[in-house]
Structures are given as C-alpha cells and as structure tokens.
C-alpha cells in the first residue's frame, strides 16, 4: 500500500471508532448523537491529514496555534480554488491566543473557544469588525469563554464566579457572537466533578444568554464524562491522528 493510502486507512479506522465512542457515550447519557459535534483537532499534524479527514466527511477543524492554522487554511483555500474540494470548511481556534494575533485570526476563524479576558474580547471585536467591513468574513466571530475550573490563571480561563461581566461584554460587541463556554479540566482531576461544575456555570449563563448554547468540553481522554455533563462539542485530536510530539517552550 502507498504511504498516503496507509494513512487514509489509519485515520478512517480511528474516525470510525471515535464516532462509535461518541455514539455510545450519547446513548449512555440519554442524548441524541446529533446534539454533540465532533471537532477533529488537527494541531501538530500536516494539512494532508486534515484533507484526509475532509475526504472522510469532516468539515470543521480545531487548531491551537495561529501560525500553523494559517498554513492549513491556505492549503484548503488553494484546494478550493483548484476545485479539489467543494465544500466550505470551518476552522476553530481552541488554544490560547495572544491579542496581537486577533487581526489574523479574525480572517480565518469561524469560532474561538478560548476567550478569557475583556482585553482579548475587545481586540477580537475590533478585528472581526474590520474583517467584516473588508469582506474577509461574512458573519460575526463566534466566541466561547474559556472557564478556569481550578482557578489557576497560568492555565488560562475565567473563574466560574467571574463569567458574567465578560459574557455581557461579548454579547454587546457587534463583531462577536457569544456562543457558549469551554473548559479543559486540570490534569489529574476527576472529569465528572469538573464537567459538572462547568455544566452548572453554563446553566447560569444560559439564563441571561439563552443563545450561548455551546458547551465545548471533552477530549480524547474524557469525552464520555463531558457528554454526561452536557457537552455539545468534543475536541478530539489524539484518538483520531495519534500522539503529538512533545514540545518544550
Ligand atoms: C490539543 C487539544 C485538544 C485535543 O486533545 P486530545 O487529548 O489530543 O484529544 C482539545 N482541546 C484543546 C484545547 C487542545 O489544545
């Protein structure tokens, strides 16, 4: 078998088993499979892997590093121009984002899952408004607030008690659409406990922001727990594409 065919077989098998895992998790939680989106996370893997996922039916992708995302978006834009792919795809920024990347990210991202400060929200609002008026995007930028479940500011995220002012600020920003909440449980914690805290925070937010229905929660290791506690989007990398190289910064 050719190298590319082998990779296709590998990713196809992995995608089938992640879809089966997600379906089983939904069934066990008494939820509809269609209520929980699978967001493949392609960070650290080449555009060719994302293209394979596209061939297998995926139309949304999660990236966590801005520069790397820009390269993959360019690859897909080229493929669309040459007619190699027909359907539009949506790119989600799921990793920590610096304010100086707001202008760039507003050009390619459908949604940002990791907004955790008013300053970042303001920068994204300005950038999205600019991109809208330049015709670089057609719809406001969807943003999710990243919630800190352990209150450790180094990991990013907003403590559950401080969500309301940021939610209101995003709601009133014309370039943004407040879509919901996201979190990554701290290492070594009990995911059921953590996702339950997140679910409660989301229910409170929904009372005043009924359209913020997204709850981005669950990854390779804990998607079942996330589905039990109301996740509407699981972000899965490792189970689809394999383990990433360890990076040191
Ligand atoms: C990398 C990443 C994921 C995917 O994690 P896996 O354990 O590989 O499935 C999910 N969410 C965020 C925020 C990530 O950075």
From TrEMBL:
<dbReference type="InterPro" id="IPR011078">
    <property type="entry name" value="PyrdxlP_homeostasis"/>
</dbReference>
<feature type="domain" description="Alanine racemase N-terminal">
    <location>
        <begin position="50"/>
        <end position="245"/>
    </location>
</feature>
<protein>
    <recommendedName>
        <fullName>Pyridoxal phosphate homeostasis protein</fullName>
    </recommendedName>
</protein>
<dbReference type="InterPro" id="IPR029066">
    <property type="entry name" value="PLP-binding_barrel"/>
</dbReference>
<comment type="function">
    <text>Pyridoxal 5'-phosphate (PLP)-binding protein, which is involved in PLP homeostasis.</text>
</comment>
<dbReference type="InterPro" id="IPR001608">
    <property type="entry name" value="Ala_racemase_N"/>
</dbReference>
<dbReference type="GO" id="GO:0030170">
    <property type="term" value="F:pyridoxal phosphate binding"/>
</dbReference>
<comment type="similarity">
    <text>Belongs to the pyridoxal phosphate-binding protein YggS/PROSC family.</text>
</comment>
<dbReference type="Pfam" id="PF01168">
    <property type="entry name" value="Ala_racemase_N"/>
</dbReference>
<keyword id="KW-0663">Pyridoxal phosphate</keyword>
<feature type="modified residue" description="N6-(pyridoxal phosphate)lysine">
    <location>
        <position position="43"/>
    </location>
</feature>
